[in-house]
Design a protein that fits this description.
Chain A has 105 residues and is mostly helical. Chain A contains three helices and one strand. Chain A has a single domain, classed as Helix Hairpins (Orthogonal Bundle), CATH 1.10.287. With 174 residues, chain B is mainly α. In chain B, 24% of the residues are buried. The chains are: A mainly alpha (105), B mainly alpha (174).
């Protein structure tokens, strides 16, 4: 296969699925947040790859602008997520998501 | 050719680091390998002619978010518990592999050349610096992203205040 967009997209898909597996299968809330960061990075790789390869011999910058917005939202998400995790840790002395079930019916 | 070699090295290191983040028992080492993973993503951006994004990636992800995660781990770490899997280990693996095969099937089966020639954004030739053109792409009057940019700044402010309110110790207010 000719080196190009597909390689980056498949790398992005592999990274996304590693992150998805971790986010579904982990018990530590910080580890889940780390896996979500991996998934966001995978999406960013796909966007930047599209920005590079969509137009031949040029870089279409819209994809990179989208990636900048995703990085912004990811930073906000990490800050609020870690604040929530620390608040849960204060009240329960644990970051195990299986123990944080007080909203379960 | 150089780009191709760099891509394969970076991709192998990245996937290895990401797998280690998911599979390692020690969550502190997992966080350090996540920072390595962020650095390799910055390298991938350089191979894609995104120099500004590579710098942003190192500053925000490897720097800010990495430090934030390590702080959170040090504040909440339970050494004997480590970084275990929950009872969904096997179903989650099946779901992830299903998503992976589906997405890769779609990627390989799509003729990506058919979507060229429909762009309306800012373009720069391959190999040139992107920092200045990204400013044009963000703030251009007709095809820019000024309103999303302003909303992003409000979002960051809300996240800042929200994080402070959430972690503030309510008992020490007197």
């Amino acid at each position: 296969m000719h080196f190009g967009l597909e390689h980056y997209l498949i790398l992005s898909a592999i990274m996304f699925c590693i992150g998805l597996y971790g986010a579904l299968a982990k018990r530590n809330a910080v580890a889940i947040l780390m896996c979500i960061e991996i998934m966001l990075n995978a999406v960013n790789i796909a966007l930047v790859a599209f920005s590079r390869y969509l137009v031949p011999n040029a870089v279409l910058l819209t994809g990179q602008v989208f990636a900048i917005f995703i990085i912004t939202v990811a930073a906000a998400e990490a800050a609020v997520g870690l604040a929530i995790i620390i608040a849960i840790y204060r009240s329960r002395q644990s970051v195990d998501v299986e123990q944080a079930d007080s909203m379960k019916g | 050719m150089t780009v191709e070699i760099a891509f394969w090295i970076l991709a192998l290191v990245m996937v290895g680091a990401a797998l280690a983040v998911v599979l390692l028992r020690d969550i502190f080492r997992a966080a350090l390998l996540l920072v390595l993973c962020f650095f390799t993503v910055a390298g991938i951006y350089i191979t894609l002619n995104a120099d500004f994004l590579a710098a942003v990636q190192v500053l925000i992800y490897a720097g800010a978010i990495g430090i934030l995660l390590i702080f959170a781990i040090m504040l909440t770490r339970n050494v004997k518990e480590g970084n275990p899997f929950n009872k969904l280990k096997i179903p989650a693996l099946i779901v992830a592999l299903l998503v992976l095969t589906t997405v890769i099937g779609v990627i390989v089966g799509t003729d990506w050349t058919t979507v060229t020639g429909v762009s309306q954004g800012v373009e720069v030739p391959v190999g040139s610096a992107t920092t200045g053109p990204i400013a044009t792409a963000l703030f251009d009057q007709s095809k820019g992203f000024v309103l999303p940019f302003e909303i992003a700044s409000v979002l960051l402010l809300a996240a800042l205040i929200g994080a402070i309110v959430l972690v503030r110790d309510r008992n020490s207010r007197g």
